[in-house]
Structure formats: structure tokens, C-alpha cells
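Example: Epoxyqueuosine reductase.
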Amino acid sequence: MIDNKQKYSDFIKSEAKRLGFMSCGISKAGFLEEEAPRLEAWLNQNRHGKMQYMENHFDKRLDPTLLVDGAKSVISLLLNYYPEETQTEGSYKISKYAYGQDYHFVIKEKLKELLHFIQENIGEVGGRAFVDSAPVLDKAWAAKSGLGWIGKNSNLLSKKTGSFFFIAELVVDIDLEYDYAVTDHCGSCTACLDACPTQAIIAPYVVDGSKCISYFTIELKENIPAEMRGSFNDWAFGCDVCQDVCPWNRFSKPHREPLFNPHPDLLSLTKKDWEEITEDTFRAVFKNSAVKRTKYDGLKRNINFLKEL
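Written out as C-alpha cells, the predicted fold is:
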């Protein structure tokens, strides 16, 4: 006879699939012992640069039971964003995750539906949804629940699907059947370390966030340091290099989420179009996009920086 834990877990995974999630894994909520010293060392070495928010809520980052009363399980979910088509060659580039609508809103809606489904079918379940905007170590939880391993580029990698996916969590106060972590399959490969344009991957499995192109083009609010000029490979928002070169991403398949489809004009923008982009065009093309994080002035700053070679 299948016990309730197994039944509920199967139930949740089946509904996650129906909602369009690529994978779903479950792990026991608790303190992340292995990650604690790593996170502390990373912060002490200032690998987070000017991302002060990374220093906040240290304890909560490592223990979801401090975020959700009575938390017992972490349900980790992956949502594919790999696009069917990419931008015109020779243009300024933005990360593929930002082609369509802002993933925060798209995933939050799906998570709300999943939590509602759990409450309707299982009973009084308390929980919270997290999409990369709260102090949750999402990659660590996804790895713990068997959805992949943390690669040398510090991204979660899956043998079946690569790494072009978003990670989200539901932290709930019921016991479920837990999954097991998978083994690391990076082997002796150093493709991501060799290809990183700014040498931000300072050692296997260690990324200096303050050297990453995504940090400079999205997180950094002041001027980009002049010494970085010429090393951005035309990336104007984010960077996908360490994912593009990863051998496991040859298994990436296009997503089926209409909300992640790009604005019709985005893929064909030339360098000249980017350089002459007006605030109105920016608003139209990136109306509900994650690119809005940099705001118009931030994007202009990035493009001017790339242009001044």
C-alpha cells in the first residue's frame, strides 16, 4: 500500500508537470550544513561585489524553516526557457532568460496554482512560493532534491536538459517523500572556465560574482570600470557564455511557454538599432521583460560602454 507521503508527492509532481514545469524534486527542509561555510567564505572574500543584499538574512538563506513556520519540505521546480530562435548574429546580446516576459511573474502564477492545488487536494497546508527574490539558495535545494548537480560554472546542470531553466521553490509544512541528490557529471571538462570572457570562474565551482558580465550589466548601478572595456563580447544585459559552451546544453530543447516568446522586434535588432533605441521603443520591446531591471538609462550605459571601443 502506498503511504500518504508517496501519494502526495506523486500528486504534486504530476500537477507540476501539468502546469508546464520541466522537473520537480522534493527534499527535507532544514539547515544547509555544507553550504554554510561556502557562503560565508564567498561573502568574506567580497565575491558579491556591490550586491549588499547578499549579506542580509544569512541564517534564513541557509534554513527555510526560518522563512516558513513549521516548514518540513522544499519542493524544487525547474521551468525551461531555452528559445527556439536566438538574436541576429553580430548584434548586442541579452541573456536568453530575458527574451520573454519577466520570469518572476510567470512562475509566481504557476506556483500559486500549485499551492492552491495542494491545499485543495491534500488539506490545510501552509507554505510560501519563492522565485529568486527571497533569501533561498535555490540551486542548493534543487541539487539536494535530485534535479541536477551544481556545475563548475556554479549553475545547476542536468544530464537530460542542460541548464537553460529557471529554479523556483514551494516550502510547505507537510512531510513528503524525499528525492536523492545525483552525482556530479562535469568530469575533467573546463569549457566554462576557459570560455568566461572576464575570468569570473576563478576555480572550478567558484564564481567571483563581482567579475561576472551579468553583475556589471545588471547589478552594478555605477559606471562600469574602464579596465573591463573590450572583454564583454557584445553582451548588453547578462551573459550566457558559460552555459552556451557547456556540453550538457546540447540536450536543451525549446520551451513551450508562450509568455517566454520574445517581442517580435527583439531578435532582429541590429547594433545600430540598439545604439539608437529610444525610451518609447525600450518600453514597447521590454514591456514585461526582466531587462526593465536595468531601466532605459542602464541599458544605454551598457550599450555606450560596448560601443566605446
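The mean pLDDT is 93.
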